[in-house]
Predict the 3D structure of the following.
Amino acid sequence: MYPDILYSELEDKLKTDEYVLIDVRTPDEYAQETIPGAINVPLFSNEERAIVGTAYKHKSVDEAKMIGVEAVAKRLPEMFKTLLEINKKHKHLVFFCARGGFRSGSVVAFLQSLHISALKLQGGYKAYRAYVNERLPEVAKDIELIVLYGNTGTGKTQVLEALKRKGADVLDLEGCANHRGSTLGAVGLGEPNTQKMFEALLYEELKDRKGNLVFTEGESKRIGRSVIPEYIFDKIRDGIHVEVTAPMDIRVENIVGDYVYETDHELIEALNHLRKRLGNERIDHYIQLVKEDDYRTVARELMIDYYDPMYEHNPKNYVFRVENLDPKKTAKVLLDKFIK
């Protein structure tokens, strides 16, 4: 039998460098969702897995296994070299695939035969997912959220980052979703996270918090591809609401800093999605300004004519207001106010 370990037994061990998770699924599977912190060392390429799966369904199990063995044989020396390098930094290698079956088991058996400490995550990614589904509501149950609201560009994310650096508990919903939550929210970030990855990262952010007061940013229920679980969204709605403000010039610089870094094609694509709301003439004007590198005018006009009216349409009752001229100083003000 392969030496198995449950994720519940492994979780605390992963806080040290002795243990590391290795995802042997394909690069596509890994890109979709994985266990946070896992390293991808795929047993099959995306194409090879598809071929093996087709053989399994339409030919025979034995033929599928033979195709798999032939594919792995070509990659085994390079894969083994990679695993040896990982093993220099981590004493125990813990492997997983989709369900903790053939792929992870075969790698563990091979390494065990060479006296390398290798374990198989029992149940694979599917079991990890079940674990998060069970534990996330539990770790979120007692939190009270201090929720930062404010117009686009007021630097709420920078304030959260400063709070985290100062040791505060923070739930970065946009970071977990890999999306900023607006029409332009994916610019420069790549693909938004899936719901499964979003929830795994929420769990990571909340499980080791030091207390129950947690800072976060006010969001709509959907961020990119991800939907905030109802039990967390209720805590946003019922949380301690703080308004963050900033002068327009600072807001413009924040937006340019966040969105402009060789992203013109993404900006133009995102602007095209606003044609129904803002009209062709205005969007054509903004696209021309982007092509002329006049990003600040685009940012300013979008905030004044589009984002600010939307924000003012949904007023909140705030217990505190703070002007964000410097995220470090703003973070200190918030800590002094709410963390005794």
The CA atoms of residues 92 and 116 lie 8 Å apart. The chain has a mean pLDDT of 91. The chain has two domains: 4-132, 141-338.
